[in-house]
Amino acid sequence: MKGEVIIVTGAASGVGFETARLLAEEGVKVVGADIDEAGLEKLETALRERDLEILTKVTDVSKPEEVASLVDFAADSHDRLDGIFNNAGIRDGTHFDDVDPESYHEHLATNQHSVYYGMHYAAKKMQALNTKNGRIVNTASIRSYFGAKKSFRYSAAKAAIVSMTMSGADALAKDGIRVNAVAPAFIDTGLLESVPRERIERLEKKHLKGRLLRADEVAKVVRFLFSPDSAAVNGATLLVDDGFLAVH
Predict the structure, then answer these.
(1) How would you label 231-242 residue by residue, b for 16+ Cβ within 10 Å and e otherwise?
(2) Residue 48 is part of which domain span?
């Protein structure tokens, strides 16, 4: 992967941050994107202190024009584009009864439509550049496979990503672009800071290790999907859930 250019959205924290770090360690020229400018500055500092290559761009992935600009920025900065990790997203804890059409569409703009924008603009750019072995990786969720009364919008978005990944793989195979996804269980990141401790403890028990996932554990699977070792994997959504769905 050395010398390749890969975009990572949601790069300011969590799985995105760890994926950016791991890819950079492989010699990838990472372009990190997030709406969190301070978090991107921390990513830049962490990687450049180790002489790892990183560019960043503040991006609101819910806006197609900003995702298009991000893709252009990455390709123009390095004269190539090899892949994108569509990872940016927000959690949900709103009861179905409290979801209205406006908030529903706003949520899907970030958690589903942004993935389409990333797939669309990155694929178009890789086609134009005649990229060999392009890769797209999306972040789905175990919520792609089951619902909950306080996860209506989130589950809808993440379920769609599984289907988008399969259809995208079929559509882009002619261009040599592989499309895959990861479906993590619950990850110990800042997104869970507002969740009550008793709720966290219940979730921990549903993972076979008895703890939440670490962001770097998920990032290592993402790195695999970008690596040559995953050449035979296409259109797949890999569960990264420590057995959560197997036993619950």
Answers:
(1) eeebbbbbbbbb
(2) 5-247
CATH number of the structural domain spanning residue 51 = 3.40.50.720
> Does the predicted TM-score (pTM) go above 0.90?
yes
Contact between 228 and 4 under an 8 Å Cβ cutoff? The reply is no
Catalytic residue among 104, 116, 145, 154: 154
Reading phi first (left if > 0) and then psi (alpha if -120 to 50, else beta), residue 55 is in beta
The CA-based angle 76-87-205, given to 5 degrees, is: 160
Each residue of 131-152: pLDDT tens digit?
999 999 999 999 999 988 988 9
Is residue 121 annotated as part of the catalytic site, yes or no?
A: no
Nearest to 140 by CA among 201, 188, 86, 99: 86
Count of the separate structural domains present in the chain: 1
- Tell me the per-residue pLDDT of 101-139, one tens digit each, with 9 for 90 and over: 998 999 899 999 999 999 999 999 999 999 999 999 999
What is the number of residues in the chain? Answer: 248
Report the C-alpha gap between 153 and 76 in whole angstroms: 35
Q: In which residue are the tokens 């890819």 written?
A: 23
